[in-house]
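[job 4471] stage=fold_predict status=RUNNING
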Amino acid sequence: MAWNQGITEERDVLLLGAKADGTIAPYRIVVAGTDPDEVAEASAATVFPLGVSGDGSENNKGTYADGDSVNVKYAGIVKLKMASTGFRHDRVVATTDGKGTRHATATEGVWVFGIAMEAWTDGQIIPVLIRQQLIVDTESIDESL
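[job 4471] inference complete, writing C-alpha cells
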C-alpha cells in the first residue's frame, strides 16, 4: 500500500447526518441542538463537541441555514476554522462562535475537541485530529504537549 496522504489533509472522516439548529458557519465545531437530530454551532468549551461542520456544499450554500442538512464530521482528521494563534500539537477547544482555539491552561470541566496538526494564525483553516476529551483532574494533565 502506497503512502499518498499526510496528516495535514482531511482523511479517515466519518459522517453523521443532522439538521442545523440555527445558522452554522463552515468548518465550525458543533454541539447537540435543541431537538433530536439537530446540531448547533458551539458556543462554549464546556459542552460536548459532537464534531465539525463542512463547507455547506451538501446544500449548495456557503453557510448552513436553520433546518439545512449538515454532514457532521465526527471522527478523523478534519478541517477546522481557527481563532487566535497556536502551534502544532496544541489541544483545541471551541470558542463562542464554534471556531477552534488553543487550550492554553489546564481548566477542569473543559472539553478538548482535538489536536492541531499544524500551527495556525487567526482565521486560518487547519487540519485537526478529532480526539474529544473532558478535562476532569488538572493535576493529571501533561502540560508538556
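[job 4471] summary: The first strand starts at residue 11 and ends at 20.
[job 4471] exit 0
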